[in-house]
Amino acid sequence: MSALAAFAAIIPIVRLTLLYGGIVIAVICAIDWAVRTRRINPFSKVARFFRGSIDPMMAPIERVIVRAGGVPSAAAWWTLVAYVVFGILLISLLGFIYGILYQIVAMAYQPSEAWRVLLSWAFDIMRLALLVRVLSSWLPISPYSKWIRWSYVLTEWMLAPLRRVIPMVGMFDISPIVAWIFLSLVERVILA
Question: 73 with 34: CB under 8 angstroms?
Answer without folding.
Answer: no
